[in-house]
Amino acid sequence: MEKVFKITEQNINQRLDMYIASLDLDLSRSMAQKMIENNQVLVNEKPVKTSYKTKLDDNIKIKIAEPKMAEIKAQEIPLDIIYEDNDIVVVNKPKGMVVHPGNGNPDGTLVNAVLNHCKGSLSGIGGEIRPGIVHRLDKDTSGLIIIAKNDKAHINLSKQIQDRKVKKIYTALVRGVIPEDTATIEMPIGRSKTDRKKMAVRKDGKEAITHIKVLKRYRNYTLVKVKIDTGRTHQIRVHMAEIGYPVVGDEVYSNGKNEFNVHGQMLHSTSLDFTHPVTGEEMHFEAPLPGYFKDIIDELDCGL
Predict the structure, then answer these.
(1) Is 107 a catalytic residue?
(2) Most exposed among 27, 142, 215, 247, judged by the fewest C-beta atoms under 10 Å?
């Protein structure tokens, strides 16, 4: 896999290894250094030293080796399937389930479960680790996710997401009382410079647009509907924390403390609208709030 970047005025005179580490590629500085040394990084089609300083209009080509890991095994894990046909599966993912295998999560993932359910019939475009995965949800974000069962469906759905034709609506409980009824957050998001596991609002980040609508206000909390135009990693969590209303239970972008002792963000993918990748039919799906989420809303409705 190759990624190509062009140096703009914002990024000139940076060490190449630091520049690469700042990109949203899940690469540390040490990893970037090794890649430069192995000629996996070319500047204007030529290998350079790790200490190379970027110049305006430089073309940076990064060759990223496809991730390799042991063959993913199908596992009999219960799935809440909302819809299925020959081309797609729409699943209501539970909180706590990782979407695909990775470091620290070799199995027990949504991919393991779907492989078992579909008997191996999934799009291969996502590679060995992400077969069928068109978009992702964080481990502790519950709700609707689309799985592609063949490459045709995968390509079409990816294009719809890229063209912002897939409508994704989330429900979130956030800390604090939002005074506005509606708001749009437009803040670019990129990899945090201080913590590689986190994302952050950055001037040189990628465009990120989040729309929020207040559903109900409580004494110390607000229930909101969230629509995202872009699908940046941790987008809703980063944006809500940045404006001072972090998602309840989010242990990464807030202190995670809450009177309900819930762990992991109270964020649920409530509805999805998209065009069927093969038939062209307009599709709409909804997933009810999980039990624990509804229980907390009931508590708040009772005046907690």
Answers:
(1) no
(2) 215
Among 17, 87, 138, 250, the active-site one is 138
Q: Which amino acid is located at 138 in the chain?
A: D
48-103 pLDDT, tens digit per residue, is: 998 999 999 999 999 987 655 447 788 899 999 999 999 999 999 999 999 987 76
Q: What local confidence, expressed as pLDDT, does residue 186 receive?
A: 97
Burial of 157 (0-12, 13-18, 19+ CB in 10 A): buried
Query: Residue 289: which pLDDT band, with cuts at 50, 70 and 90?
Result: very high
